[in-house]
Design goal:
It is a single chain. The protein is mainly α and about 80 residues long. The chain has 3 helices and no strands. The longest helix has about 35 residues.
Length: about 80
């Protein structure tokens, strides 16, 4: 499910950024994305995804800081 969602989102963004369909089509797509973003089910899904990934994001961030500190220490020696 995650892959499909990411794929659809990526294709949508790619189309909007790369389309040569003109301003009218862009406005049409933007209105559809705004409507989707206003949907309570979509907001709920985004909130759920945020909660479920919060711990992982913290661990990865802490690991990156530790790795940067290790590189800095080794470069100084």
């Amino acid at each position: 499910m995650k892959f499909k969602t990411g794929l659809v989102l990526g294709l949508g963004i790619g189309y909007v950024l790369g389309a040569r369909a003109g301003r009218d089509r862009y406005e049409q797509l933007k209105a559809a994305l705004d409507a989707a973003a206003a949907n309570p089910q979509v907001r709920n899904a985004l909130d759920t995804a945020d909660r479920k990934t919060r711990t992982v994001r913290k661990i990865v961030g802490d690991s990156m800081v530790a790795a940067a500190d290790t590189v800095k220490d080794r470069a100084g020696n």
